[in-house]
């Protein structure tokens, strides 16, 4: 399994629950793999995906989305019948094309998305309790057997997460709205502040700024991971970015026109929308 | 003084510190004033700004920015010589025009901006410890006497805050970047999610979504207060909104073009910008 925050946490939590007796960590970077071993995330590491999955009962695909197809092509021939294969990707419409279609029908593949990642990443961000009390979305395909879903559900429950099943298409549209668009907004905001005049930049760095800190928190996330999420979910995401751009322009125009009533109406609409989407 | 989150907190913290023996709460809405009395923020309430400041040693202007000039015009004739007048507004370039120019030279006016507000507002959001360990920016004008600055500094220290002095123009440019633009982004993001298809909206409401929650947190703030901040600081804010819109469009275009290297570079730039502005 991958040894980033999610893969490493599955390893830690699964060992703590007694699910895994031997964990092979896969990755491409020697320093990350060394760190994973030092942190005790796995028993052995390898830069060969094939070596990592030979004899495995459970395979966890936990790499940036666009690295997945080549890995699946490599491991498909050596997977034992009955192996449980899950992924943890933030986009699920790609799971059939990139994973299921490349796997033998003799393995149990279940598309999964644990809602547990944070803006931290890499082996050092792995936590044994990362999934405790969280939700894992499971998106069965037409080929997914009920038995496979049950196996995945038991795995996630053992790791501490509740499972909610959802159709892949709905998953990707919902995630585009409540996760991917906020990440776009945060990265855009943080990037927009990259060219402040030196004296403004210096003064800004000296001040405690909770609004910027929270609004841009997820812009500290892994660029490689989010690059792939944005690209793989662009059918759902691009229309929302356009709506965001339009809303931003409406606010800009109302401010430029000194139109207080219009500004207030736009802010009130945002406030109400947030209160509806995020109750309590 | 006003009885919202900031004015009410000055009242609570000031009484706890033994600074105020009698607090008159001013406001326009009877329900807010009743709430302020019930919460013990003040001894008496009035809808007359004049009644609120007669015989006052300290006057705290804590209303939305555009309500300030009329209030200052009303109270200026009755302020006793030597009264300390502070405001707590998030824009300071307006302090000279809207406040200082309307006040007699016999009072000590000091433009202040405590960096302590949250997204909660109204009397119920007041806290005696709101300023503890926080920073208050003080922006002396050419007319502000050193004695007046010292009086304001002592007041804020007694309330628990450290004082940093800053020129009003720099204050407004820095705040446009680290506070006002994040608020615009958060309101725009929340507003953009106001028109989701019903089945997507419903599924979104059922999921825990930390990225949307944090990215849009400040969109729960008072629309009336932020309307005035955006309008009064639009000279500094509008160019930044344009830069944000441009950055958002660059990300959109890179995603639409499936240009992974460009997407990653834009995200990495955002990540680096955030890390520079928000150390640790």
Biggest interface, chains and residue tallies? A-B, 95 and 95 residues
Q: Which percent band covers the strand fraction of chain A? A: 5-15%
User: Helix tally of chain A?
Assistant: 12
CATH topology of the largest domain in chain A: Rossmann fold
| Largest beta sheet: strand ordering of chain A | 3-4-5-6-7
Query: What is the share of helical residues of chain A?
Result: 40-55%
Question: Could you describe the largest sheet of chain A, including whether it forms a barrel?
Answer: 5 strands, mixed
Task: Report the order of strands and helices of chain A.
Answer: HEHEHEHEHEEHEHHHHHH
Unreliable spans of chain A are none
Using DSSP, what is the number of strands of chain A?
A: 7
Q: Provide mean pLDDT of chain A, rounded.
A: 95
CATH class of the largest domain in chain A: Alpha Beta
Counting structural domains of chain A, the number is 2
CATH architecture heading of the largest domain in chain A: 3-Layer(aba) Sandwich
Structural class of chain A: alpha/beta
Radius of gyration of chain A equals 21 Å
